Amino acid sequence: MSEITTKKRKLSVENGIDVSEPLPKTAHMQCPYLDTINRHVLDFDFEKLCSVSLTRINVYACLVCGKYFQGRGTNTHAYTHSVAEGHHVFLNLHTLKFYCLPDNYEVIDSSLNDIKYVLNPIFTPEQIKQLDFNTKMSRAIDGTMYMPGIVGLNNIKANDYCNVILQCLAQVRPLRNYFLREENYANIKRPPGDSSFLLVQRFGELLRKLWNPRAFKAHVSPHEMLQAVVLWSKKRFQFIKQSDPIDFLSWFLNSLHMALNGTKKPNSSIIYKSFLGHMRIYTRKLPPPDADDAAKIDLNSEEYAEMITESPFLYLTCDLPPTPLFTDEFRENIIPQVNLYQLLSKFNGQTSKEYKTYKENFLKRFEITQLPPYLILYIKRFTKNTFFVEKNPTVVNFPVKNVDFGDILTSEIKAKHKGKTIYELVGNIVHDGTPEKGTYRAHVLHTPTQQWYEMQDLHVTSILPQMITLTEAYIQIYELKQD
To answer: Might you give the EC number(s) for this enzyme (predicted)?
Structure first.
């Protein structure tokens, strides 16, 4: 063997591939070790990196113990593991090919297709259409029954604020249908060196795992998705520290939109197609309260004239009325209640609200000019003052079905919508506890069965729709009724 060939062989073995001897052509058909595979320990939710060297290059999963190791050639971690532990069947996590080590031959067997499908679930257009009609439960490998799409997400430490957003977005049909087919976004070209597209890929992988009808376990760990979030938010959102779901939702939708080459045009990405609405904002500057009468008289000047601006929105912020300061006659604080339509009156174009800045005061009116197919409402419960964060416990009374948002539109704009202003609730996020130490849970509607489920991390339970209206709703997603 020449010196150059020896060097080539040495390099390839170091990278985990022994190319010195070609794989036998016939030896791959049957493997005597397939009965050693333990499907109960297989978990492909975690980062695909070697458990010894922590490298991401050429990683194999041991199908006997579930651990990840690099390489296949002699002196690699996978090879050493196979000899030391007697574990022989490995899966390349990138190419999805099975190998038997240390003999180093490829295993081709149709009985292994279920493992391949769990690692990378694939949906055809016909299967995606059927998701809206499927009422059949699936069985995990340990016998647990689960409904595809209604699957618990693991809380690694304090990422429940992420989990509730991801669970609700997984129920938004256009978004789900788009991300279940990798072909929809595989050809999007990004600038060289830009890897923010990883966020799109990880979200697609997570949705495919959530809707997988042939999963090995009835829950999903969003580990890779959260790693991408931490990386691309520059540690603004972490899974070891609680954050505000509305901040995460706003950042996440805008980041996905940008990564999908979205522009300011309404239909430039699936995010804008689903959630983008338009409003008109009327702003009038108020004279300072301590100004003298001469300054107050000149309200007709250009400075105090009303300005009109057009603004797009991804969600609407609803302000709760302040909580009562005093107890009632029985010396008890009755929890205040408010109707949803009362909160929405802010957007009817007639109700004015004062906004104070450091120097100036403004009076603003909001008028919705176009409703999106999916409307997100953010009910502002937390107010920050100089010393601490306060939570408003007011209960919002809202209908779950047939919510007519046309009532807040002007007759001219309502006519443009051609009667399509009736919405139904599909996702509801609730905050429990104090502002600092509270937790989040989500209520989602399974459309085919019309059954509501409550999801708090790994706990998934069915719930009556009447119970949802009694909770302290924080973020809601409404779907436009098409028929």
So the answer is: 3.4.19.12
Query: Cα 311–313–317 angle (5° rounding)?
Result: 110
Which of 345, 383, 380 lies closest to 365, judged by CA? 345
DSSP assignment of 347-406: GEEEEEEEEE-SS-EEEEEEEEEE--SEEEEEEE-EEE-SS-EEE--PEEE--SS-EEGG
Each residue's pLDDT tens digit, 393-438? 899 999 999 999 988 898 889 888 887 899 999 999 999 988 888 8
Q: Which amino acid type is present at position 165?
A: I
Helical (H) or strand (E) element with 226: helix 223-232
Q: What confidence score (pLDDT) does residue 19 get?
A: 43
Contact 402, 341 (CB under 8 A): no
Q: Dump strand ranges (E) for 114-273.
A: 138-139, 145-146, 152-153, 219-220
Residue 42 to residue 110: CA distance in whole angstroms: 18
The predicted model gives 302-319 an average pLDDT of 90
19: its two tokens: 């190319």
Amino acid letter, residue 176: R
345 near 408, Cβ under 8 Å?
Answer: yes
Task: Tell me the CA distances in angstroms from 300 to 283, 304, 308, one per residue in order.
Answer: 14, 6, 16
147 secondary structure, DSSP code: B
**Residue 294: what pLDDT?**
54
Residue 10 has a CB neighbour count (10 Å cut-off) of 10
Give the global pTM.
0.88
Say how far apart CA 27 and CA 19 lie, in whole Å: 17
In this prediction, residue 326 carries a pLDDT of 64
- Cβ atoms of 412 and 352 within 8 Å: the answer is no
- The DSSP bridge pattern shows strands 337-339 and 395-397 to be parallel
* Burial classification of residue 402, based on how many CB atoms lie within 10 Å of its CB (0-12 exposed, 13-18 middle, 19 or more buried): exposed
Instruction: Report the candidate in 373, 372, 355 with the shortest Cα–Cα distance to residue 364.
Output: 355
- 183-194 pLDDT, tens digit each: 999 888 888 877
How far apart, in whole angstroms, are the C-alpha atoms of residue 399 and residue 118?
A: 38
Residue 372, preceding bond cis, omega within 30 degrees?
Answer: no
Q: Which two tokens stand for residue 219?
A: 């829950």
Instruction: Supply the DSSP string of 8-56, one letter for each residue.
Output: HHHHHHHTT---SSPPPSSTTS--TTGGG--GGG---SS----TTT---
As given in the structure block, the two tokens for residue 285 are 């500057």
